[in-house]
C-alpha cells in the first residue's frame, strides 16, 4: 500500500466527518506526490531536497497514513548526522540537479570534511529547530504495531541524544544553558523582523546584486512573497564565513549573527521531554532527560522572558540584550515544559491579544489565522514570508503550547482556523492572516502533514 501514489489512512478516526475525511485524503495525496523514495521534499520545485525541521513535521503527518515512510523519513535525516552531533538543515538529493536550489551542495561542501556524509549525500552545515525527538515519539505513538515501531525508536535514540548534546554544549554560546543559532536560516523563520537589526550591517547592494542571478526561489514564487536580494546578501555572507571556518562554533564573537531564539529553545525543551518518553521505551533512564528539559525551560524563563512585556524575545549575544520585536517565535516557547505558571499565563494571553489574536474587524471568512509577526508593527507584511503570514507549523507549535497551558478554547480556535483555511485555499506554504489567501508555494508538505495531525486530534486525546 505504501508504494501507491495515494496513501490511505491507517489510523481509525471514527469521529471524522465526510468533509474532514476528504480533506485528509487530499493532504495524503500531497505527501504521496512529494515522496522521493527515502524522504519527502517540502515542495516539488521550490525546495527539491530534504529539510531538517520539515522532515520532523512531515513524519508526524506520515505517521497517520504510512508508518513505514514516517520512520524512513526520520532515519534518512538521522543518517546524515555529522560526527559532532549536528543534524544538517538540508540533505541534498543526489538525483536533483545541483543548480535546482541555491545555495546548493557545492556551496556548502568546501570546508566540511567528507566524513560528514554517512549516507553518501552532501549536506549543508547549519541546523534547524530540533523537533526531531518529538516527531520520533509521535511516529511511535501513532504506530499500529508498537512492538515493531520500538525497533525504530531504539535506532533513533542515540543519534537524537547526540543531537541535543551538540546543541547544549557546542551551541551554548551564551553559557546560560540555551542553544544559540548562528544564521537566520537556523531559526526556520528566516527573514523575521526580529533579525532586522542584527542583519543590518551585513546587507549590501553589492552582495544583493551578486546573489540575485543565483537565486532559484524567484523562479517559483513572486518577489513580493520572498526575502529581498539584500537579505540574501546577508544569508550568503554569514553561511560562507561559517563554512570557511570549518563550521567551528567558537564564541559569539566568532560569528556575524549569534542569537538565542525562544522558538528554537522551546522546541528543544519539548523534544528533550520526548527523549524521556523514548528512553522509557528503549530501556534507558528517562530522569536525566526530564531534568534537562526542565533546565532548558528554566533557562528560557530566566534569559528570554521579559517580565515588563509579558513575552519571550530573542537574545542577541553579540549586541547583548533582548530584541524587542514581537514574533510568534515568542509564543512558540509555550511548548516548553518547566515554565513558571505566571510566565505561561501571561504569554498565553498574548496569543489571543491584539498583536496575534483574531483580528477584530477584518476577520477572514476562514477564521483565526495566527500571524507570524505582530500585526500592529510597522514591519508587518501579511504576504511576505516570515514577516506576517500564517504558517501551519507555527500554528501547530503554539497550539500545543496552549494545550500545555490548559487553554483548550484558544488551542481549538487555532486548529479550526487553519483547517478551514486549507479546505478553501489548499495546502499552501503560508497564508495571508487577514484574508486567508494562500501564498508561497502550493502543495507544501508540512501544511499537508500537520493538517492530518490536527484532523486526528480530539479533546480527549491523551497526548498532552
Ligand atoms: C532556507 C523548507 C524551508 C523551511 C524554512 C523556510 C524556507 C529555506 C529557503 O524553506 O527556508 O532554509 O530557501 O527559503 O524558511 O523554514 O524549512 O521548507
Describe the structure.
Helices cover 44% and strands 5% of the residues. The chain is mainly alpha-helical and 464 residues long. It has a four-stranded antiparallel β-sheet. A two-stranded antiparallel ribbon has the order 1-2. A two-stranded antiparallel sheet has the order 5-6. A hairpin with a 4-residue loop joins strand 5 (305-306) and strand 6. The chain is globular and about 55 Å long. The structure holds (2R)-2-(alpha-D-glucopyranosyloxy)-3-hydroxypropanoic acid. (2R)-2-(alpha-D-glucopyranosyloxy)-3-hydroxypropanoic acid (9WN) binds at residues 42, 47, 51, 53-54, 89, 185, 188, 190, 217. The site of (2R)-2-(alpha-D-glucopyranosyloxy)-3-hydroxypropanoic acid has 10 residues, from helix 2.
Please render the helix and strand layout as text.
Elements: H1 18-33, E1 50-51, H2 52-62, H3 67-78, E2 90-91, H4 105-108, H5 132-141, H6 146-168, E3 180-181, H7 184-187, H8 196-199, H9 205-211, H10 229-244, E4 259-260, H11 262-282, H12 287-304, E5 305-306, E6 311-312, E7 314-316, E8 322-323, H13 328-332, H14 341-351, H15 392-404, H16 408-425, E9 430-431, E10 438-439, H17 445-456
Antiparallel strand pairs: 1-2, 3-4, 4-7, 5-6, 7-8, 9-10
Helix pairs in contact: 1-17, 2-3, 2-5, 2-17, 3-5, 3-6, 5-6, 5-11, 6-11, 9-10, 11-12, 15-16, 16-17
(2R)-2-(alpha-D-glucopyranosyloxy)-3-hydroxypropanoic acid binds at residues 42, 47, 51, 53-54, 89, 185, 188, 190, 217.
Short description:
With 464 residues, the protein is mainly alpha-helical. The protein is built from 17 helices and ten strands. It has a four-stranded antiparallel β-sheet with strand order 3-4-7-8.
Amino acid at each position: 500500500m505504501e508504494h501507491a501514489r495515494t496513501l490511505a489512512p491507517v489510523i481509525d478516526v471514527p469521529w471524522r466527518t465526510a468533509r474532514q475525511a476528504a480533506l485528509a485524503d487530499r493532504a495524503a495525496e500531497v505527501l504521496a506526490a512529494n515522496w522521493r523514495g527515502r524522504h519527502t521534499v517540502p515542495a516539488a520545485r521550490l525546495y527539491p531536497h530534504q529539510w531538517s525541521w520539515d522532515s520532523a513535521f512531515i513524519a508526524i503527518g506520515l505517521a497517520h497514513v504510512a508508518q513505514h515512510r514516517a520512520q524512513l523519513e526520520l532515519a534518512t535525516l538521522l543518517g546524515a548526522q555529522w560526527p559532532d552531533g549536528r543534524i544538517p538543515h538540508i540533505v541534498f538529493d543526489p538525483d536533483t540537479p545541483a543548480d535546482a536550489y541555491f545555495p546548493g551542495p557545492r556551496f556548502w561542501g568546501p570546508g566540511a570534511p567528507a566524513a560528514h556524509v554517512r549516507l553518501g549525500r552532501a549536506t549543508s552545515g547549519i541546523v534547524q529547530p530540533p523537533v526531531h525527538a518529538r516527531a520520533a515519539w509521535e511516529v511511535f505513538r501513532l504506530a499500529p504495531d508498537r512492538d515493531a515501531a520500538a525497533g525504530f525508536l531504539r535506532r533513533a535514540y542515540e543519534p537524537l541524544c547526540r543531537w541535543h548534546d551538540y546543541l547544549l554544549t557546542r551551541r551554548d554560546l551564551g553559557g546560560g544553558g540555551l542553544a544559540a543559532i548562528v544564521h537566520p536560516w537556523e531559526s526556520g523563520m528566516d527573514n523575521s523582523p526580529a533579525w532586522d537589526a542584527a542583519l543590518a550591517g551585513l546587507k549590501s547592494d553589492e552582495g544583493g546584486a551578486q546573489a540575485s542571478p543565483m537565486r532559484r526561489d524567484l523562479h517559483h514564487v513572486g518577489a513580493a512573497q520572498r526575502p529581498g536580494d539584500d537579505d540574501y546578501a546577508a544569508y550568503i555572507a554569514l553561511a560562507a564565513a561559517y563554512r570557511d571556518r570549518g563550521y567551528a562554533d567558537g564564541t559569539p564573537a566568532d560569528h556575524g549573527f549569534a542569537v538565542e531564539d525562544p522558538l528554537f529553545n522551546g522546541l528543544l525543551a519539548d523534544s528533550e521531554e520526548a527523549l524521556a518518553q523514548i528512553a522509557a521505551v528503549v530501556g534507558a533512564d528517562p530522569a536525566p532527560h526530564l531534568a534537562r528539559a526542565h533546565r532548558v525551560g528554566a533557562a528560557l524563563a530566566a534569559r528570554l522572558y521579559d517580565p515588563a512585556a509579558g513575552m519571550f524575545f530573542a537574545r542577541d549575544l553579540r549586541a547583548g540584550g533582548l530584541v524587542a520585536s514581537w514574533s510568534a517565535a515568542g509564543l512558540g516557547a509555550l511548548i516548553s515544559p518547566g515554565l513558571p505558571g505566571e510566565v505561561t499565563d501571561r504569554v498565553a494571553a498574548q496569543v489571543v491579544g491584539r498583536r496575534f489574536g483574531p483580528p477584530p474587524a477584518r476577520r477572514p471568512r476562514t477564521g483565526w489565522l495566527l500571524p507570524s509577526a505582530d500585526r500592529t508593527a510597522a514591519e508587518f507584511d501579511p504576504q511576505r514570508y516570515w514577516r506576517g503570514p500564517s504558517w501551519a507549523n507555527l500554528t501547530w507549535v503554539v497550539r500545543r503550547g496552549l494545550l500545555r497551558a490548559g487553554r483548550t478554547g484558544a488551542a481549538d480556535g487555532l486548529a479550526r482556523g487553519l483547517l478551514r483555511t486549507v479546505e478553501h485555499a489548499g495546502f499552501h506554504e503560508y497564508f495571508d492572516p487577514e484574508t486567508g489567501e494562500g501564498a508561497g508555494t502550493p502543495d507544501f508538505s508540512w501544511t499537508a502533514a500537520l493538517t492530518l495531525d490536527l484532523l486526528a486530534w480530539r479533546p480527549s486525546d491523551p497526548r498532552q
